[in-house]
Amino acid sequence: MLNQPPHRVSAGRTYSSELSATGRIVIPQNGNVMSPAMASTHRTVLLVDDSVDTLEMYAVGLAHAGYRPLTASDTAGALGQLRNEHPDAIVTDLQFDRGQSGWELIDEIRNDPETRQVPVVVLTGRMDTSIVGNAERVGCVAVLRKPCLPQELALVLERVLPDSELPLTPDWNR
């Protein structure tokens, strides 16, 4: 295995990767999968959730699907990442333990001329018609219920980012 130097995926979180001799990504036991080459060539997705475990699961899954994941655990962190990294899409939960909610984050995104066109996917543990209706009303491109597999999220992102450089069907068995 060839060890790659660590790559900063988000503030405070560093991911590294191992590449086999064939160049395929190997997911180590600690789940760190992002290589520097991937970070510079693939679509960036900002994941916002107050659960570190949830962030890591989706970050690993999306990195495996060829995306460059960024993570934030609250609205302030998400807005900072959004302004500094200019992600291609945002995936957010609606409830955070502290501070603002995902709805407030979406409002901030939609009210800023520089970010209002960024596609937003809602990923929530609670689903009802009012959530779907509100998400449509504020311009979200999809609503998914947690838990959903990272592969499902990647497929939704593939549809909302049609000019992506990613393969149409990621090989999840690598």
List the SSEs and their pairings.
Elements: E1 2-3, E2 7-10, E3 13-15, E4 18-19, E5 25-26, H1 36-41, E6 44-48, H2 52-64, E7 68-72, H3 75-85, E8 89-92, H4 102-111, E9 120-124, H5 129-137, E10 142-145, H6 150-160
Parallel strand pairs: 6-7, 6-8, 8-9, 9-10
Antiparallel strand pairs: 1-4, 2-3, 4-5
Helix pairs in contact: 2-6, 3-4
Description of the structure:
This protein is an alpha/beta fold. The chain has a domain at 42-160: 3-Layer(aba) Sandwich (Rossmann fold). It has helices spanning 36-41, 52-64, 75-85, 102-111, 129-137, 150-160, and strands at residues 2-3, 7-10, 13-15, 18-19, 25-26, 44-48, 68-72, 89-92, 120-124, 142-145. A hairpin with a 2-residue loop joins β2 (7-10) and β3 (13-15).
Q: Which superfamily, in CATH terms, is the homologous superfamily of the domain at 42-160?
A: Response regulator
Oligomer: single chain
Provide the low-confidence segments as ranges.
Answer: 1-40, 166-174
The CATH class of the domain at 42-160 turns out to be Alpha Beta
Largest sheet, in brief, is:
5 strands, parallel
**Alpha carbon gap, first and last residue:** 15 Å
Overall mean pLDDT stands at 77
> What class, by secondary structure content?
alpha/beta
